Amino acid sequence: MTVLNATRIALHALGRNKLRSVLTALGIIIGVGSLIALISVGNGARAEVEKQVASLGKNVIQVKAGSIRKNSVSLGMDSSTGLSLADADAIRREIPDAVAVSPEVKIKAQVVAGNRNWRTDVYGNSIDYFTIRQWKTAKGEIFTEQDDRGGGKVAVIGTIAAEELFGEDDPIGEVIRIQNVPFTVVGVLVPKGVSASGSDQDDSIIVPCTTAIRQLVGKQSGLRRIYVQAASLEVLPKVEKKIGELLLQLHRVAIEAASEAKPDDFFKVTSQLEIAASATETSRTMTLLLSLVASVSLVVGGIGIMNIMLVSVTERTREIGIRLAIGAHRRDILRQFLIEAFVLSVLGGVMGIAVGTGTAALLTEFADWPTQISADAVLIAFVFSAAVGIFFGFWPARKASRLDPIEALRYE
Questions:
Q1: d(Cα 169, Cα 275) in Å, to the nearest integer?
Q2: Does residue 221 contact residue 114 with C-beta atoms inside 8 Å?
Q3: pTM for this one?
Q4: Residue 387: which H helix or E strand, with range?
Q5: Which of 63, 124, 130, 122 is nearest to 92 (CA)?
């Protein structure tokens, strides 16, 4: 018996019990649909995280202020006052592959514009910050290097801060007050969305770093962090290492003077590659767990196929006996029932692919979840469903092929 004839007989046998065949394939449909939908959600989440990391800029290294202790209580990262403008200047001066350097300070302040007010994050950065972050203005322009050096009272604001403070009005040229200090708005930044750390980048105001230190945070406060852009991705690890060595040299006296202090207590150097790896690890783990859960559904569907195929063998015992008696080989019987199980799982896989892609599209449309359907996920789900059909269909097919023709003909 050829494969084509065996397939035709298998399809005829499945067509005689359409409802049972559909219900049997339902486990595979649910399993494949769940697998594709959940992998799509996981891929979408990972793509969103990668997008957020990319919003940091290109070839970026962050030097974060470390942690200090007060009354034996650690205040966490960014609480140290060890980083200073001198550190940023040293990085700019001593490391040739650091093409852009921006020191940063930050406060949370109530900002007033006319009869409106809004509490938001106020950052003090240098002009290099916009180059490092690849952040352009939607309206107006960024402040100049002269503003940065001379302590100009100018500000560039995010879209959310602009909407809350000015509504539909054009904010360019308007005055806002931060801690009663007047700043003129010179630009509105293009939207960037939520950062990898979860903060809304558009709800912010950026002023020159020197102005922020003199007018807002005070000269005794240290930098929150220093942004550094490496010349290329290839030199990124080397620049990161050199920054660590340079800062360790500059702060060696302070580190040695502090009892039980470590370099991380004063500063922490992190590259964009490390941030991306850390940020995507969670989404990768989530995708793996979701895939395993969906795979369980496929296995359950395979058990359902095996169960129904065993019932089918029992129901068709006399038919098998007749086929064997008139000259059919055992391998023909094995092939026929194996093809039936394979067809069931493949049809379920095809329908499951449609269900999974449709579910992913609905989640994006109505739940606003980012999803990303990959061809690899569809192919893996389809191959897995076919493999499940063959694996769980083999035992019933083998049982059918090993029936004794005489006993099969006597079966009632």
A1: 38
A2: no
A3: 0.64
A4: helix 375-401
A5: 63
